[in-house]
Amino acid sequence: MGLAAGRSRLPSCVSHEFLVVAGLFILASIPCEAQLSSSFYDNTCPNALTTIRKAIRTAVSRERRMAASLIRLHFHDCFVQGCDASILLDDSATIQSEKNAPNNNNSVRGYEVIDNVKSQVESICPGVVSCADILAVAARDASVAVSWGANMDTEAWKKRLHHFRPKPSSSQPSYLYRRPRPAYFLVLVNYTQ
Predict the structure, then answer these.
(1) Which of 113, 125, 149, 180 has the fewest Cβ atoms within 10 angstroms?
(2) Of the residues 16, 76, 162, 163, which is catalytic?
């Protein structure tokens, strides 16, 4: 029994569709590793995170409400089609940007702070740090800037979160003694001074 030219024979219980689906299943089940890292810019722009942190602390110290605005700005950027900094784009002749979309217009603020941070980062390492990374790090640093103990290092946070709980006194309000939720610690794990 010979094979016709260009045709292959599979056992009757196996179809081409089955092989495609099985192949896709095998590919989908292969574990992959994310390439996200808090040390991503350590070699290409070592002062990027420090520059962003200082600029955000300055902006938040001028107007404490700016921290919430930067976190909200990051949320609105991520909400539409992922965290791609598209909310920072201006309108063009062919598109209406997210910045001026009806839900964001006169609602989201903090653009000038991000523009300032971007110009500072560009002055030390041009074309290296993405706007999406600047926006994400700015939101993180804004959160840390207004949190209690923002100047503590990671080990001090671990101690405070997991082992240390001061006794309430009658002279201080009880909310000072509540521990932050464990998820809050994730924001601070890789925060360096």
Answers:
(1) 149
(2) 76
